[in-house]
Amino acid sequence: MMPNARMATMRMPALSLSAMALLAALAMAAPPLAHAQPADPTAEPVCAPLPPSPQASDEWAEMFLKPGESFSPARLSPAVRQQAGAWMAEEQKRKSQDWPYLCRYAADNARLVASGQRPHVVFMGDSITENWVKGDPVLLGGGNAGRGISGQTTPQMLLRFYPDVIALHPRVVHIMAGTNDISGNTGPTTDRTIVDNLRAMIVLAKANRIKVVLGSITPSSGFTMRPGANPATRIMRVNGLLRQLAAEQGVTFADYHAPMADAQGGLRAGLANDGLHPNRDGYAVMRPVTQKAIAQAER
């Protein structure tokens, strides 16, 4: 596990590259932002109600998740297009006011903490984790909690790691990140920076007695919004560093790359509709790897 005036970069902090491509193809202008009222510096900040997300719609989800589905944004309904426009406008404001998107799960976190329930596993990640909730609702449902945000990079996840993971007191955290760092969603970044951000999350989890599963980056040989770019080699290189990090920190490493990659390092045919995000068949391949890793982490 998954959403600026230029359409191609309108969702950098909160949409994956393929999701951004969908919005870019909608060909509709976002409504203008209202002028914000001066904030009271003495008031406790409160998250405003979130506009409907196109990612929440079954229509949007099936573009990614239904095996063999045609990846065609032209078939999106007017209602989903309208949601996308509102989401674009909100994203303009969020870039400066909530860069890590702390508000995304704030209400869900508050309800979960108030209930006194302790999640078994919190899944922290980007669009692949966010889509996983619908892609395999049995695995990520029940006593588990999905905390993926489409398009996010490791520094954004690090900033929200306390409220979205530690404050929920799970027994295990499953961390999977790095694709959007490699694609440059929040600017160029080095392999070392990716690893250091993930190391910081692991250290925080261990300090709070939370078991850790560190997931590899899933394979991909192309990014929709980076024509000509082939991240396959770098993904494999970073995955090697993540395996080393897991060994160094004494946490469980979940290798999703090996069972999902083709000979060129991309996703095997049939496991994704866009070459990047697993569909349900892709998540079915991931499931036994995840289950084995969680069981290993809890030993």
Concise synopsis of the structure shown:
With 299 residues, this protein is of the alpha/beta class. It is 44% helix and 7% strand. α10 packs parallel to α11.
Account of the 3D structure:
The chain has 299 residues and is of the alpha/beta class. The protein folds into two domains: 7-30 and 52-97, no CATH class; 106-297, Rossmann fold, CATH 3.40.50. It contains 13 helices and five strands. The chain has helices at 17-24, 58-65, 78-97, 106-115, 127-135, 137-140, 154-159, 161-164, 179-183, 191-207, 232-249, 257-260, 280-297, and strands at residues 121-125, 145-148, 172-176, 211-215, 252-254. Strands 2-1-3-4-5 form a five-stranded parallel sheet, with helices on both faces. Strand 4 (211-215), helix 11 (232-249) and strand 5 form a beta-alpha-beta unit. The longest helix has 20 residues, at 78-97. The two termini are 23 Å apart. Residues 1-36 have low confidence and may be disordered.
